Amino acid sequence: MKRTDTLTKVISFLLFGALLAYLSVYVVRSTSNNIRTAPAVFVSLSDNAITSGIVVRQESLVQSNEKYLSVVAVSGKAVAVGETVAVIYSGEESLSRAAKIRELEIKKQYIISVLSGASSAESLADRDNSIKEALLNVTASAARHDTENLASASVSLSSLVISNASIDTTEVDLNLVTAELDSLRQSALSDTAVITASTPGLFSASPDGYEYITPDMLSGLTVSKLTSLEKTPQDLASDVRGKLASAFEWYFAAEVKQEDADRLKVGKSATLDFGRYCSNLLKAKVISISSPENDECVVVFRCTEATAELLFVRRASAEIVFDAHEGLRVPKQAVLSDEKGSYVYTLTGMQAEKKYISIVWETNDYFLAEVSQESASLREGNDIILTTKGLSDGKIMKD
Fold it and tell me: Is the pTM of this model over 0.70?
């Protein structure tokens, strides 16, 4: 009786052990086959400070009280010393002649476009491409409010759209228009005068009253003085027709928190981001940093980039970019390493694929990996395997 009880206990113990082993293997397999992934996402990280201030340039106003005057300089375009900014007409007759000259110039360009249309767009495909290009020129000129180029671009477009067969024009017509133009231009010499640029610069037809603020006035600038300057534009005289601004440099006097200003050094460069005003990050030199007032400082930057892009910007917000990094976001738990460097496994089809990465930045939760053009490198959108235990290159992964 005793032997039977002992045998029963041994058998029960063996069965319990077998069941426990089976359950353990089942749990381990179930856990190990639970594939968790995260996509490789391209991200940009930056350490920056938001500031606001005023853009200052060396500027001079273009002034004239002449009744009959036409500004010919184009806003946003560079003007050289001695180049014509505006034309003064002696009276109504002179002004009407100028309008006639412009009309004939457009007509001449139109005739030239039509006569050259056959050689420049002989096939239908060539004509279509020429029309698309001309349409883009019209759109771009309209967006820039460039009336001078808009007229020329419109002439080119219309000459392409209208079939040559429906236009009766010859070289004789071109010669007649040219002769009439020459005659009118000769007559204009006696009753027109010009205003020329005394200094080189970028022309703007939109003065704003802040032109009196010069770079020399930024020396010793304090927070209270900057606030006062920003609030006190001057009234413009009625004879102001535009302005010329330095095409070589501009200054940005900005109010910056003291803790951010402490990270800058006079004489060193800084990176500025003006957002919608300029698509590129700009390098600027720190000219001065004021003493703090209520935990705020005035920092004056000098920049020689994007002078035309920021010509029409006066009061603006910008970011001071202290540090910036970009790359593919890789969860830290997915990163392994060997003698060749750091790597991750990605789920490619149903296989684990080993991909080496170059880490460029680290946060608390993830790394940034450099974007590489090599075919075997980690790419944006790859599924990074997070459960790294037991993985090997080429291993078949089962759900």
Answer: no
